[in-house]
């Protein structure tokens, strides 16, 4: 029973491989050929202006087919092909979108894959089905041939010259080829997937750059974490710790004065109670600076709404999040928005601000803007540079548009997935 089940699984896999191979043939001939022709024409038309609009559409279509091939390679053959594309710019300008696509090396590798896949996809796609059909011909057709031939030839050699022996040999060879096709078909399909991997995966130079970026990001994250620890230690030493030491001294003095001067002891205890309240408040502020309770309880949506209410100017808040990100990503997003709002309150001289947060294409998009005096520059250091490093630790990006005279618009993106979907997003004005 076990061997029968295993044999049935082999047959099902072989038949499925034939179907998938034929799908690859259709893609190679009916999709890759038109796409390559349109790619050449759209790039040729760029000087005429038509290609500025047409080329991005065609190149993104090529990218879509390549992404489909990546998915098939992973699901059908277990060959992972990472997506190597550079981040898409947040712009509607056709010229910038065209430049983004043309300067990405992965675009040209996609085009090269499209060309080479035309003959190779046809050959490797047909091969599993061709082996199966030819093997089945030897098994099913040869016994009925006898001395009848098609143009003088049977499945493997001229049947009319060898008679029954030829028929028996044809059946045996057909059965062997059929069995072989069930085993070899998935290997042929995997060969096609490996061919796709050789062109569609990130190049070595891209991987080297990525490793260098990750090393730099890790170093910056370690430095930022060390600076954050020093800040917490300094705040504890200069704030809550000093107040607790003074509190302990006041209580000790009150104990000594309790019998000799109860009135003075009572005043010291009152001061101690006041100092304890201030120390507790400072500890709460310190905890909020590490991980705000409102963020844990209400998520990024509620935490940003609460932040907006603390600003001394109107803040339009529009948030559309169908779920919650992981805690580290959520925390990074919260502090990024908090730093931008703090800059608005301190430096912008703005009369109004706005916040827009949404999730699309597996990226958390945050836009914080104001109508202030402008001139914000992350390169000058300070809080914005720290936020840029914090986002980079999660492969996030930050773009600042702040001409003199304003407005200032800060666009931040974090790649992430959402979970725990909610039924309704929120929007409002702080």
TrEMBL record:
Name the reaction it catalyses: ATP + protein L-histidine = ADP + protein N-phospho-L-histidine
Which keywords does this Swiss-Prot/TrEMBL entry list? ATP-binding, Kinase, Membrane, Nucleotide-binding, Phosphoprotein, Transferase, Transmembrane, Transmembrane helix, Two-component regulatory system
UniProt xrefs under Gene3D superfamilies: 1.20.5.1930, Histidine kinase-like ATPase, C-terminal domain
Q: What class of enzyme is it?
A: transferase
A Pfam family recorded for this sequence: HisKA_3
Domain named Putative sensor is located at: 23-200
State the GO CC annotations.
Answer: membrane
Question: Per the database record, which ranges form the Signal transduction histidine kinase subgroup 3 dimerisation and phosphoacceptor domain?
Answer: 228-295
User: What is this protein's record name?
Assistant: histidine kinase
Q: Which domain of life is it from?
A: Bacteria
Q: State the EC number(s).
A: 2.7.13.3
One GO MF term = protein dimerization activity
TM annotation in the entry? 35-62, 111-136
Q: Which InterPro entries match?
A: HATPase_C_sf, Put_sensor_dom, Sensor_HK_TwoCompSys, Sig_transdc_His_kin_sub3_dim/P
Q: List where this protein forms a coiled coil.
A: none
């Amino acid at each position: 029973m076990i061997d029968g089940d295993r044999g049935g699984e082999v047959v099902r896999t072989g038949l499925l491989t034939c179907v998938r191979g034929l799908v690859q043939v259709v893609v190679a001939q009916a999709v890759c050929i038109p796409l390559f022709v349109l790619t050449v024409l759209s790039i040729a038309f760029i000087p005429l202006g038509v290609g500025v609009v047409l080329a991005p559409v065609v190149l993104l279509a090529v990218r879509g087919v390549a992404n489909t091939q990546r998915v098939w390679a992973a699901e059908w053959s277990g060959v992972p092909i990472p997506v190597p594309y550079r981040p898409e710019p947040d712009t509607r300008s056709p010229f910038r979108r065209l430049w983004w696509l043309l300067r990405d090396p992965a675009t040209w590798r996609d085009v090269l894959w499209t060309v080479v896949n035309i003959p190779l996809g046809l050959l490797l796609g047909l091969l599993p089905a061709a082996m199966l059909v030819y093997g089945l011909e030897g098994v099913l057709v040869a016994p009925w041939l006898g001395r009848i031939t098609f143009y003088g030839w049977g499945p493997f050699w001229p049947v009319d010259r060898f008679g029954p022996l030829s028929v028996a040999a044809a059946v045996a060879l057909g059965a062997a080829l059929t069995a072989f096709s069930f085993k070899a078909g998935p290997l042929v399909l995997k060969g096609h997937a490996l061919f796709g991997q050789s062109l569609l995966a990130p190049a070595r130079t891209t991987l080297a750059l990525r490793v260098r970026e990750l090393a730099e990001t890790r170093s910056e994250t370690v430095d930022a974490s060390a600076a954050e620890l020093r800040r917490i230690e300094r705040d504890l030493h200069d704030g809550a710790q000093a107040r607790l030491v003074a509190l302990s001294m006041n209580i000790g003095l009150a104990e000594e004065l309790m019998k000799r001067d109860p009135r003075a002891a009572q005043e010291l205890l009152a001061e101690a109670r006041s100092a304890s309240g201030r120390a507790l408040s400072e500890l709460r502020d310190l905890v909020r600076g590490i991980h705000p309770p409102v963020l844990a309880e209400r998520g990024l949506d509620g935490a940003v709404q609460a932040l907006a209410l603390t600003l001394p100017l109107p803040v339009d808040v529009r948030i559309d999040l169908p779920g919650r990100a992981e805690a580290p990503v959520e925390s990074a997003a919260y502090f990024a928005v908090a730093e931008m709002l703090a800059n608005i309150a301190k430096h912008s001289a703005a009369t109004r601000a706005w916040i827009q947060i949404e999730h699309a294409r597996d990226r958390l998009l945050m836009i914080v803007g104001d109508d202030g005096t402008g001139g914000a520059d992350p390169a000058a250091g300070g809080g914005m540079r720290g936020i840029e490093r914090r986002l980079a630790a999660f492969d996030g990006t930050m773009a600042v548009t702040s001409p003199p005279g304003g407005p200032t618009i800060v666009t931040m993106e974090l790649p992430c997935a959402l979970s725990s979907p909610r039924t309704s997003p929120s929007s409002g004005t702080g």
